[in-house]
Amino acid sequence: MSSQKDTIRSKSKNDFLVQPKGFATKAIHEAQDPDQWNSMAVVPPIFMSSTYKQHGPNQHAGFIYSRFKNPTRDVLERCLASLDNGKFGLAFSSGLGTLTAIITMLKSGDHILAERDLYSGTNVAFVQIARNLNIAVDFVDLADLDNVEAAVKPNTRLVWLETPTNPLLKVVDIVAVCKVAHKFPGVVVVVDNTFLSPYLQRPLDLGADIVVYSLSKYMNGHNDVVMGAAIMNDKALYQKLQFLQTATGIVPSPFDCFLVNRGLKTLALRMERHKTNSLAIAEFLEGHPKVDRVLHPGLPSHPQHELSKKQTYGHSGMVSFFLKGGLEEASLFLQSLRVFTLAESLGGVESLAGSPALMTFVCFTQEERDAHGIADGLVRLSVGVEDVDDLIEDLEQALAKI
Ligand SMILES: *Cc1c(COP(=O)(O)O)cnc(C)c1O
Q1: CA–CA distances in Å: residue 16 to residues 180, 201, 299, 307, 311
Q2: Cis before 167 (ω within 30)
Q3: What whole-number distance in Å separates Cα of residue 154 and Cα of residue 275?
Q4: How many Å apart are CA 135 and CA 109, to the nearest integer?
Q5: Are the C-beta atoms of 112 and 136 separated by less than 8 Å?
Q6: pLDDT tens for residues 379-400?
Q7: Rounded to whole angstroms, what are the CA distances from 257 to 42, 244, 251, 354?
């Protein structure tokens, strides 16, 4: 017979933070109340209307025009806010659209301090857009806290990080970075939480000011939507970003909001499966003779395994590993996969695999790739929710080909 204590212990087998109760219930019910609709629809309807009848001039029922506010988007934004224990949520037409809205809060002469290892699109936006607008950007390794203190300037407005990073899955201490950054007035700390989702990490609870997502990944979870979001607690920050959401026009379609809202209902279930599948695969790869090194925050060999256990409720489906060999071996391996699909992106139910050197980071020079540790034999997996035995068999047969 298993006691309550045993259940809790078995759920935190790897000593990650224990999930407080209520997450899955919120993901299914928050902002979804059927009583808010005349029809009492259990599933929030897709409101395609771009405009809304007014009782008299400027006497409206809360909705004026769908770029400002739309009922389907409103449901999603409220649900998203609750999952991060935040007060306010805003949805954008993509993850990078969210970043664009946040950059437009700054002005010429401001400074952004960014983690060195970032999603390549974020890096490109900082280097090729922000710098053009005379916004200075410095990239540092935020895992080294002395760097934060040394690099913050009087004009620093944003500290931007993601953890775990892409594709090397380096874990950054959110509490520690926020503590240092918040010694300087006016600095807003943004955490891109796309790789974990709020089920596994809640940056606002750890001191961040804004958490951002590409909803295109785990949050929607089915590789059929491109969308983004920002969640925060501070009302003034929310009002600024809400203004920019509508003034820049970076808004998602009601249909896509419906799909992400549906995706969230299975987020907890999916993340649990991503978690167990990816750890089993990481352990399999770590013992394989053709694999040099495996990067997965759930492995005791991961450099920030202890920090990961303190900061997160577990790990997602992301696994990176170094094959013994170079570009040729990595290509042959990827082309030999049958269950994994060779494709960009991550976080969906389908398992995907890719070569960072040949795909996401192909526009970087060899020196830049070397500096970022993007070796030729590096492979990134987004482990899906298929039967794990089928996935391991697939990896085994593809490794046998090289
Ligand atoms: C995909 C991704 C983005 C960009 O999101 P889009 O929805 O593609 O614009 C930003 N950050 C991370 C970590 C991502 O994986």
Answers
A1: 25, 11, 12, 10, 8
A2: yes
A3: 41
A4: 5
A5: yes
A6: 999 999 999 999 999 999 999 9
A7: 16, 19, 10, 28
pTM over 0.85? The answer is: yes
Find the mean pLDDT for residues 216-223. Answer: 98
Look-up: residue for tokens 């019910």? 29
How would DSSP label each residue in 117-150?
S--HHHHHHIIIIIGGGT-EEEEE-TTSHHHHHH
CA of 13 to the centre of ligand 1 (A): 30
**H or E stretch including 278?**
helix 267-286
Active-site choice (73, 119, 213, 394) = 119
- Taking phi over 0 as left and psi of -120 to 50 as alpha, with beta for the rest, 134 belongs to left
Find the helix packing angle between 327-336 and 388-400, rounded to 10°: 130
- Whether the CB-CB separation of 90 and 330 falls below 8 Å is answered with no
Q: Which residues pair with 354 in a beta bridge?
A: 380
Tokens of 316: 């997602």
The confidence score (pLDDT) of residue 391 equals: 98
Residue with the bigger pLDDT between 148 and 351: it is: 351
Active-site position among 13, 67, 131, 183:
67
Cβ atoms 166, 195 nearer than 8 A:
yes
Q: Helix or strand or coil: residue 342?
A: strand
Tell me which residues have their CB closer than 6 angstroms to ligand 1: 94-96, 119, 121-122, 162, 166, 192, 194-195, 214, 216-217, 226, 228
The whole-angstrom distance between residue 284's C-alpha and the CA centroid of its chain comes to 25
CA distance 123 to 119: 6
